[in-house]
Amino acid sequence: MTRRSSTTSSAPMGCRRDRWRGVGSTPPEGAAAAGPTGAPVTGVAPDTMPDGLLGLATALVGIPSVSHHEEVMADAVQAALELCPWLDVVRVGHNVVARTDLGRDRRVLLAGHLDTVPPAGGNDEPHLEGSTLYGLGAADMKGGLAVFLHLAGRLDTPTTDVTWCFYAAEEVAHEHNGLRQLWAERPDLLAADAAILGEPTDGLVEAGCQGTLRVRVRLAGARAHTARPYAGRNAVHRLAPLLTTVAAYEGRRPVIDGCEYHEQLQAVSVEGGVAANVVPDEATVVLNHRFAPDRTVAQAESGIRELVAPHLEAGDHWELVDASEGAPPSLGHPVLAALVAATGTAARAKVGWTDVASFWAHGVPAANFGPADPLLAHTAGEHVSAGELAAAAAVLESLLTAAI
Amino acid sequence: MTRRSSTTSSAPMGCRRDRWRGVGSTPPEGAAAAGPTGAPVTGVAPDTMPDGLLGLATALVGIPSVSHHEEVMADAVQAALELCPWLDVVRVGHNVVARTDLGRDRRVLLAGHLDTVPPAGGNDEPHLEGSTLYGLGAADMKGGLAVFLHLAGRLDTPTTDVTWCFYAAEEVAHEHNGLRQLWAERPDLLAADAAILGEPTDGLVEAGCQGTLRVRVRLAGARAHTARPYAGRNAVHRLAPLLTTVAAYEGRRPVIDGCEYHEQLQAVSVEGGVAANVVPDEATVVLNHRFAPDRTVAQAESGIRELVAPHLEAGDHWELVDASEGAPPSLGHPVLAALVAATGTAARAKVGWTDVASFWAHGVPAANFGPADPLLAHTAGEHVSAGELAAAAAVLESLLTAAI
Fold first, then answer.
1. A378 and chain B: CB distance < 8 Å anywhere?
2. Residues in a beta bridge with A369
3. pLDDT tens digits for range B297-315
4. Measured between beta carbons, which residues in chain B are less than 8 angstroms from residue A228?
5. Quick one: CA torsion of A270, A274, A275, A281, rounded to 10 degrees?
6. Annotated catalytic residue A260
């Protein structure tokens, strides 16, 4: 743990920002452009490296950090934060938490995950088209990380205390989630009055999040030779009415704090079959249900089970595979209300599950706010523009420097 | 090749039958009961080993011969047939063909496969309940093989020439089929006016066989996050109307030579799914169609495609995976008509595909006839009774010794 007293915060900001802009400076002859910790930045010629926020985002996209491989990224972020004497920086695994300690009445936590999904369609090298950055993680969520790092290095005297939380392994099974590790090992670092998750939201507040659950439904049948199917019962054929019901599902659209959620039910996988000439005696379908935060996991599971019940019989099998509670919008909280106001636009519901629910489960109201289009997440063509980055930074700077 | 002149056929039958009965004789102290070639016969205590046909069938079940492991079984059959001086015995791979050469006007070929499916439910050791033999292959088709071997060793002067054909690898992919090997390497050995396949048929003639084909239908969709499925299209949901149509299929029941066939359509496997939170962009179903022998593969495929067509769109994929033509009943042929007459019962249609079609494809009319219930094939509890074996042997002996 590196502890720097806030009394040393008179170090010139320009110097520190120069360090960040340094990722775009011309490298020595024959050397590749280098990120904050010397990690090579690929795919962008040194002489076209953009300045400022876009340059920072480009540098971050240039550091590979697919889930479970966040170490270099965490090193870079840690090194950058340690340049700021007003931040206490703590490293836990590949998670980095940096906090001000200004004795303010409120503390706002801003969190973002360091990892990305695996590359797709050759998007592992960043490239620029005008002032838009393309590359793995550009939208989800290195654009958001760039905004956070930019502000962390700029706001030496915010009007609320601020916790910057950079965590690993959000894009994989929850057991690996860095935030989960922090809650288990250092919950003190995550204490806050409200939290903002920097996932891409198009620069709007996406409030709360829907819950999610998966159930595996196994339909039974009886094997027989396909020339004499009447001697058995085809479990795959039994999928037909069940899938018809699932496909016709119309989800509830409850409005909470002015945000309309939209429940969904999707078959995400199906499987069945014994051999080329055998009537299958088993067919399995996995359903993913997304439910509004006015329902618990138990209520949501019960609702889906009731829907599917007419197609189930003795001998079939129902299994809750996994589930995560949602989080209500909590827009009545002063910090989140101020965030919405700073965007100048009404909040909308977050229909996907995010770690907002993890904060809510620990009593911290939270919302999603970040640059880039959320529909681009996990696509080969994800991107973020300089304008989106600047707008998100302006909203957060306004929130964190407002008179209180 | 072993050639024995029929002029040596005066060797006493009793002697040879004693050799077969020898499988049931009390072995030397401490030794296991042994089959014709010394292969151990397991699961039946020597002092309870039954006599005659049932004993022969028990010995054959006691020789493991799962597909691709037929060598010991082929050795045993070859050794037994070579005891009969009126038979030319030829070994090709693990196939054994034994022929009389009496200069008769007609030649009847009797064929049976040596292999079994893998054991199920501990049925790899034969056991007797009264005069019923249980064990792997008892019904499919070591009961039939026992009848053939019994008659081969008994009928030294049949009224038609006879070809006994024992072949390997019928229960696995057709490329391995021993009959196919014989057609390729020694078609002369399979020349005949008519053929009888000793598959289990309950002691009736099961005429011809239905054809079979499999098609793989791949439905396309578009990926999306399951929280926003409206951004994509769920290919698994598209299975619903297709499977509804398949499940509601009512097959034709054409009557040919007095035998009613019954066409079938079954989904034998289904597959789809990308990840826990992704709307699947692909779903695949494999359909198995059994069609009556008044249709070709091309006609049958076209009929199924027409049925499914309303559910297909541009971007979907249709693939004929494999197909085998059926065989008509051919009950007008004098040998097959005489076989039906010998059973004293009307023939019925064979709704499954059998190697009858292989003979028909080479111009040889053929039918299925053998002891045991065909519905027991490939089940853990397959069995055959002494009465069934004796009845089948009597029918074939009558056919092969009738005045012509």
1. yes
2. A205
3. 999 999 999 999 999 999 9
4. 264, 351-352, 375
5. -100
6. no
Is residue A170 flagged as an active site residue? yes
Q: What string of DSSP letters covers A225-241?
A: BTTSGGGSB-TTTTHHH
Alpha-carbon distance B401 to B382, whole Å? 31
B378 to chain A, any CB pair closer than 8 A? The answer is yes
Q: In what order do the strands lie in the sheet with A211-220?
A: A317-324, A211-220, A282-291, A264-273, B264-273, B282-291, B211-220, B317-324
Contacts of B288 in chain A (CB under 8 A): 226, 276-277
How far apart CA B283 and CA B239 sit, in angstroms, is 7
User: Across the interface, do B269 and A227 touch by the CB < 8 Å criterion?
Assistant: no
What is the distance between the alpha carbons of residues A176 and A28, in angstroms, rounded to a whole number?
A: 39
Instruction: Please tell me the predicted confidence (pLDDT) of residue A336.
Output: 97
Residue to substitute from B201, B202, B236, interface A, most A β-carbons within 10 A:
B236
Catalytic annotation, pick one of A124, A140, A156, A170: A170
How many Cα atoms sit within 13 Å of A96 on the Cβ side? 26
For residue A286, list chain B residues with Cβ-Cβ distance below 8 A: 273, 276
Q: Say yes or no: A173 contacts chain B, CB-CB below 8 A.
A: no
Residues with Cβ within 8 Å of residue A174, at least 6 apart in sequence:
A180, A322, A324
* Chain A residues 229-288 with CB within 8 Å of chain B: 229, 231, 234, 236-237, 239-241, 243-244, 246-247, 264, 266-280, 283, 285-286, 288
Q: Which helix (H) or strand (E) holds A72?
A: helix A71-81
ipTM: 0.81
What residues in A contact B211, CB-CB < 8 Å?
A: none
CB B396 within 8 A of CB B110: yes
For residue B404, what pLDDT is reported? 63
Nearest Cα to Cα of residue A65 among A140, A2, A147, A173: A140
Report the DSSP beta bridge partners of residue B270.
A272, B285
How many other CB atoms are found less than 10 A from the CB of residue A321?
12
CA distance A52 to A22: 10
| pLDDT band at residue B129 using 50, 70 and 90 as cut-offs | very high
Q: Which one of B286, B288, B324 makes the best mutation probe of the A interface by having the most chain A beta carbons within 10 Å?
A: B288
- The one-digit pLDDT tens for each residue of chain A (404 residues) are 444 433 333 333 333 333 343 333 333 333 333 334 444 444 443 344 456 899 999 999 999 999 999 999 999 999 999 999 999 999 999 999 999 999 999 999 999 999 999 998 889 899 999 999 999 999 999 999 999 999 999 999 999 999 999 999 999 888 999 999 999 999 999 999 999 999 999 999 999 999 999 999 999 999 888 999 998 999 999 999 999 999 999 999 999 999 999 999 999 999 999 888 889 999 999 999 999 999 999 999 999 999 999 999 999 999 999 999 999 999 999 999 999 999 999 999 999 999 999 999 999 999 999 999 998 988 889 999 999 999 999 999 999 999 86
**Closest alpha carbon to B267 in B235, B240, B292:** B240
Contact A155, A401 (CB under 8 A): yes
Distance CA B123, CA B126 (A): 7
Shortest Cα distance from A377 to chain B (angstroms)? Answer: 9
Over its C-alpha atoms, chain A yields an Rg (Å, rounded) of 24
CA pair distance A249, B367, nearest whole angstrom: 52
Of A225, A228, A266, the CB nearest to B229: A266
